[in-house]
Each structure stands twice: as C-alpha cells, then as structure tokens.
C-alpha cells in the first residue's frame, strides 16, 4: 500500500482540534476510586514450564468492578531481589497466549507482567482467559462500540481500569521494584499504554508502538480497515448518533491521555499503516506533554511497524530509565 496519509512533514505538526470533555479528569478519578474499593487481591501461582531461563507465574487480580483479570508474570530464573518491571498490554483480539510467547524482557533481566484483555483472545495463536461479565446495548461486531451510548458503560472504561490495576498488581509482587515500572504495548496495547501513562503519574517510561485508540474521528473516517471501521458500521445503522458516539469516545482518546503523560515516551508509526493511520499516531505524539519523547518512523511498513527491529530499539532505549 503506498503512502495514503499526510506527508511526513505535515504529520510532525498535525494537531487535530479534538473536543475534550470538561469532566475528563473527574470521570477517570471516580472510575479508579470505585475500582480501588476492591482489594487488588493479586495471586501469583507458579507454573511448571520447560524453560530453563525463566520463572513463570499465572496471575489473577481484581480489575474493574472487582472482576478477575488474568495475566502472566515472567521473571529471570532465580530472582531473589526486587528488579524493574515491564507491564505489557496486547493487541486487538488477542489474549495473553502462552508463557513461552513472552520471554524477551525476562531474558533482558526484567520482570515482565503481561495483562490479558477482558473479553478478547479468540485468536488461535494468542487465546485469552479473562471474561467481560458486563453487557452492553446495540453495537457493531467487535469491541469498539460496546456500550458506546454512555461513557460509563463503554467497553474501554473497563479495559483501561484493568490496565491501571495491572500496574498496581505488578507493584504488589515482592520481586518487583515498585519504583521502576514501565508500560509497553503495540496497536491496541499501545493505546492502552497511553491511557495508563496518563492515569499513572509515576511510571519511569512508556513505549507505545503503532498505537490504536487515538484521534477517533479521523481514524473512523480515514481508513476502511478494522477495527476503526467498526465505528462507521455502527453509525451506518445508528443514523443521527454521531455526536453522542464521538462524545463517548472522547473520554477514551489516546490524544487526551497523551496530554497528561509525563514519563519519557517512545512511540513508533508506519507510513503505510491503514489500521492505525500515522496521523492518528502523530496526533497523540504531538500532544504528549512529557519533556522526553521520541518517534521511530517506518516509511515503507504497514501495521507491522518496525516488528522485531523495533524490539531492538526498545531494548536499547528502555534500560536507561528502568536501570536509573
């Protein structure tokens, strides 16, 4: 696919006029206060895996509404003292998968906490184990419009709350240094990472690769690829609901969370990415309020972005903050 979005020099200055709800901060403060009324109750059950270099734990903790959320914790084998941690959020439709899929950060010497995404995980290679017990009104297939009639009912209110609680669960483990925790994610995981970066003020760094869930109005109208297209499918059937729908989505836009982020941040985008168009990524990057931020641009890639090359960039960039 050739370049289809704005030229790179325009992307670097792209700042959409996105209305922000007046009660955005109040909404999220109340949401997290309600979630914290439930004991985090994090449980870490050792898992016997035929891997010599790591110790693996099956994790369960209380997320939104006290609902049980699953995850993995992977530690370098034989860890006896608290070490820095990377908390990871995963891509759209995927679940936590299997432990041997998550070895990179433990082999680099860090604790690796992987959060399962509620209700997702039907992918054959990355199954999920976390239910979403909350229903919703009419929606298009997928997750983008579940509960979109009201921000209190919207699906990603639950997911973003789970994600903040995942940081809290990770910090509760005795072998994790609670003062040296970073958040990381790709695509949907990158969007969740931006939300966590805006809601958790003391992360040491965030890494958001080809992030989804940013600049919803542009994503819903620029690309015909899923998942943004789910919004268009919903509005095709729900004529006249545009204003209410985009008002709900404004409470969950990565651009608004980026404006509240303070930790050093590494972003990446790809100029042929039709799933998460580069302008939506730059909208968040250009809004990011942290003083230290960097963007990796892959000119001839699609939604795969930098792939394993970007992992190499992360391995060089993130330790300067985790090891500080």
From TrEMBL:
Residues 121-146 are annotated as: Disordered. Substrate binds at residue 92. GO terms for molecular function: carboxylic ester hydrolase activity. Residues 1-319 form the Acetyl xylan esterase domain. Gene3D superfamilies: alpha/beta hydrolase (3.40.50.1820). It comes from the Bacteria. It holds the Pfam family AXE1. The active site is at 187 (nucleophile), 273 (charge relay system), 303 (charge relay system). GO terms for biological process: polysaccharide metabolic process. InterPro entries: AB_hydrolase_fold, AXE1_dom, CE7. SUPFAM superfamilies: alpha/beta-Hydrolases (SSF53474). This is Acetyl xylan esterase. It comes from Streptomyces uncialis.
């Amino acid at each position: 696919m050739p370049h289809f979005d704005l030229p790179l020099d325009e992307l670097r200055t792209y700042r959409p006029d996105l209305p922000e709800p007046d009660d955005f901060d109040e909404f999220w403060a109340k949401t997290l206060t309600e979630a914290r009324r439930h004991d985090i109750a994090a449980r870490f059950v050792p898992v016997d895996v035929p891997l010599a270099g790591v110790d693996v734990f099956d994790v369960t903790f209380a997320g939104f509404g006290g609902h049980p959320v699953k995850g993995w914790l992977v530690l370098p084998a034989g860890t006896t003292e608290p070490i820095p941690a990377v908390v990871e959020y995963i891509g759209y439709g995927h679940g936590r998968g299997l432990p041997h899929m998550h070895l990179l950060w433990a082999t680099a010497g860090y604790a690796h906490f992987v959060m399962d995404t509620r209700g997702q995980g039907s992918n054959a290679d990355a199954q999920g184990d976390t239910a979403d017990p909350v229903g919703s009104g009419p929606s298009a297939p997928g997750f983008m419009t579940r509960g979109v009639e009201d921000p209190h009912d919207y699906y990603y209110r639950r997911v973003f709350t789970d994600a903040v609680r995942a940081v809290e669960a990770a910090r509760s483990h005795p072998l994790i240094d609670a003062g040296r925790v970073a958040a990381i994610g790709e695509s949907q995981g990158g969007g969740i990472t931006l939300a966590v970066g805006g809601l958790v003020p003391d992360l040491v760094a965030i890494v958001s690769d080809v992030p989804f869930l940013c600049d919803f109005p542009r994503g819903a109208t620029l690309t015909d690829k899923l998942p943004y297209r789910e919004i268009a499918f919903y509005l095709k059937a729900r004529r006249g609901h545009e204003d209410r729908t985009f008002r709900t989505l404004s409470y969950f836009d990565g651009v608004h969370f980026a404006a509240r982020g303070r930790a050093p941040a590494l972003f990446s985008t790809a100029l042929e990415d039709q799933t998460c168009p580069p302008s939506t990524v730059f909208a968040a990057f250009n809004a990011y309020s942290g003083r230290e931020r960097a963007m990796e641009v892959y000119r001839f890639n699609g939604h795969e972005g930098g792939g394993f090359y970007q992992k190499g960039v992360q391995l060089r960039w993130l330790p300067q903050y985790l090891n500080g």
